[in-house]
Amino acid sequence: MIKTTFTEEDFVKYNDPKNVMMQLFGVTCSVCGVDEIDFIDEKAPKTLGQVAEEILAENPEIDDEELNEMIEPQIEAWQELDDYNASIGMPTFLCYNCHDQLIEGEISISMTEEE
Ligand SMILES: [Zn+2]
Description:
The protein is about 45% helix and about 5% strand. It has helices at about 20-25, 50-60, 65-90, 95-105; strands at about 10-15, 40, 95.
């Protein structure tokens, strides 16, 4: 089912400590492409920054390679969500402006076919 209306309940505040997602993927607003994310899909898994922070809190001696391995399943969870969202016209990442405008119904998500 294609999603056409959006409410505040559809999104939660984005919190990615140390901007891990930004560094790994260069995440951008799903609508306009700016790299300042303020909100994400409320179905989203924990951000990679949150997961990394928890892992480091429990395993202070962990090295980067081990940390990356432990984050891996979370990366897949994000990929799955983003693929699913793309299929239903739901943005995964939103900047402040697009979040406001979507909820106000001032803009809509245009579905484009993959090339
Ligand atoms: Zn935007």
